[in-house]
Amino acid sequence: MSKQRWTRAAALAALALLGAGAAAAQTWEYKSYKKSGAGGQYNKDNYVMGSVTLAEKDGKATLATIAGAMDACRRAELPATVTRSDAEITIEPEVTMAGCERWRLVIRNDGSGGRREVWRNDKWVDTKWDHGLTPKK
Predict the structure, then answer these.
(1) What is the C-alpha R_g of the chain?
(2) What angle do CA 20, 26, 107 make, to 5 degrees?
(3) Which of 32, 90, 31 shows the shortest CA–CA distance to 61?
(4) Which of 25, 54, 70, 93 is at a distance of 20 to 30 A from 60, taking alpha carbons?
(5) Cβ within 8 Å of residue 56, ≥6 positions away
(6) What is the distance between the alpha carbons of residues 20 and 125, in angstroms, rounded to a whole number?
(7) Distance between CA atoms of 124 and 54, rounded to whole angstroms?
(8) Which of 103, 109, 108, 107 lies closest to 124 in space, CA to CA?
(9) What is the mean pLDDT of residues 20-43?
């Protein structure tokens, strides 16, 4: 088994264990864009389809992203702040490592997708990249 497949299998097993004790969990499909070439530029045609899972238990929330090889800022299960409205759910993971960018997911409740936003110049900015964010089937 390749290292990437083993890592994915281990992460899925951990999520399964987490889900067994969680009061509520939601999972969405997630496109994780990859850098390509020596310059390390992101390419909209180069992505891995994975998932994000929000688990909530005892008033605390965590967000886990599984989408191939992830950068260190997003590869762990992260504590998160969750805000809900009639139209959408906003999930903001805690930034636990120095040098990592603040980010959040804003997902429409009707199942039609959402967006990934980053904190820039003291405000939230839409990355304008399609990350999927539709309910995982």
Answers:
(1) 15
(2) 165
(3) 90
(4) 70
(5) 22, 23, 24, 25, 62, 82
(6) 35
(7) 21
(8) 103
(9) 78
Are β-strands 123-126 and 132-135 bridged in parallel, bridged antiparallel, or unpaired?
Answer: unpaired
The two three-digit tokens of residue 13, written as one number: 């097993």
Q: Tokens 């890592």 — which residue?
A: 7
User: How far, in Å, CA of 78 to CA of 84, rounded?
Assistant: 18
Phi, psi of 3 (to 5 degrees): -60, -40
108 vs 79: CA distance, rounded Å: 21
- Give the pLDDT score at 38: 66
Name the phi and psi angles at 33, rounded to 5. Answer: -80, 145
User: Would you say 93 and 63 are in contact if contact means Cβ atoms under 8 Å apart?
Assistant: yes
Provide the token pair at 81. 């702040």
Consecutive H or E run containing 45: strand 41-57
| Domain limits, the chain | 3-135
Cβ pair 68, 50 in contact under 8 A: yes
Return the minimum-mean-pLDDT range out of 24-28, 53-57, 72-76, 90-94: 72-76
Quote the CA–CA distance of 85 and 82 in Å, as a whole number: 10
